[in-house]
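go over whats below:
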Amino acid sequence: SWLFVALLCAGTAEAASPESRATVAMQKSGSEATLLGMFFHDPQLGWAVGSGGTILKTTDGGRKWKKLSSGTTSLLTAVYFQDARRGWVVGANGTVRTSRDGGETWSVVFVSTQAPLYGIAFVTPQNWLYLTSYRKLREKLLRGSQWSVVARLGVDAFETIGGHIVNVALLALK
């Protein structure tokens, strides 16, 4: 299952440069939880999620991890941060949480499913894919995320809202 979050975001359709590749090394998390999802905002700042509602945060590239309170004991499967402060986690039983302070506190996002959620996707205005003002966000998304789906949904994408103002694209990131 995918969670679709309506956001105004931005970013580029250019390929990531070879110098933007990350170095991967095994690190101890200090947690007994099974970790299933991880996201790094930059080489130093990252989050990991897993069993028992575990959310871990690192500010030193993974050398040390701090356990954060998620407010749930549900299995968490994916994490994504739009920037250093705004993020989302998803997991079992339709669990969705959002943070506006880098993960220090989490709020419940109510969704109409009890199905397990395994990823985070966005429905956005389609123009951010092309406008030069969104170049830095596009570059960040290309470097830090796997793009699963990009589809133009068009003006009749939603039953309850319509018109040419609602001309959106679907973007699914892992």
User: Anything to note?
Assistant: The two ends are 13 Å apart (CA to CA). The chain is about 5% helix and 35% strand.
